[in-house]
């Protein structure tokens, strides 16, 4: 089943609440089989000798390459961003269908945040029994302050769409399968609470415990703007016990 394509978006966020340019303009269609991707990249259904990534899809060969001249943060985003947008996460994330079986997820980013592509790579390398999408290429766009992740579409129907059709036995079997995957990942332990890259996590306060004033006082959560991830410090067991 192909990903759902969203209609044009309502404009409900104030300019000061949005990224520059806003998250829904991270990618834009330049015409049939051609995409503008952030300030750094172009993607087209053709081959390039200088491509940074290439993939074969059902309609042909696609290539990702760097722009000759990067865009600035104030450059009006080129292309039509409404084309093939499959997800919109408010002022910090969005996703587009680039080719028949490849999506690109775009998320807000600040220095120190581990990109999703790196997390998926860790799962692939360390938990091979956990089914997960294949990452074609991921990169950081520092000028537009967001991460990009090109990945294959996972075939099938989402649990959200199919759940009501499942029997009680089916739901139990799925839950048990998920538990097996969680237990597989839980075998990998670390002396600190951090991301796969060893940086601070981005999360809500409950992960730090009900009330740990020392951690909270040492935390430098860089969320001066509503779209920015809340980046927390690396946490040691000693800090959690205090």
Please give a handful of descriptors for the protein shown:
single chain, 242 residues, alpha+beta, 5-stranded antiparallel beta sheet, 24% strand
Overview of the structural elements:
By secondary structure, this protein is an alpha+beta fold. 19% of the residues lie in helices and 24% in strands. It contains five helices and ten strands; from the N terminus they run E-E-E-E-E-E-E-E-H-E-E-H-H-H-H. A five-stranded antiparallel beta sheet has the order 1-2-3-5-4, with no helix packed on it. Strand 1 (27-31) and strand 2 (34-37) form a beta hairpin. The protein starts with 26 loop residues before the first strand and ends with a helix. The model is unreliable at 204-212 (pLDDT under 50).
Offer a quick outline of the entry.
The protein has 242 residues and is an alpha+beta fold. It is built from five helices and ten strands.
Layout of secondary structure:
Layout: E1 27-31, E2 34-37, E3 41-44, E4 53-57, E5 60-66, E6 85-88, E7 93-99, E8 102-108, H1 116-126, E9 135-141, E10 146-152, H2 159-162, H3 168-186, H4 213-218, H5 237-241
Antiparallel strand pairs: 1-2, 2-3, 3-5, 4-5, 6-7, 7-8, 8-10, 9-10
Instruction: Characterize the quaternary organization of these chains.
Output: single chain
Low-confidence stretches at least 5 residues in length (pLDDT < 50)? Answer: 204-212
User: Beta-strand percentage?
Assistant: 15-25%
> What integer is the average pLDDT?
85
- By DSSP (H or I, 4+ residues per run), the number of helices equals 5
What can be said about the biggest beta sheet? 5 strands, antiparallel
Order of strands in the sheet with the most strands? 1-2-3-5-4
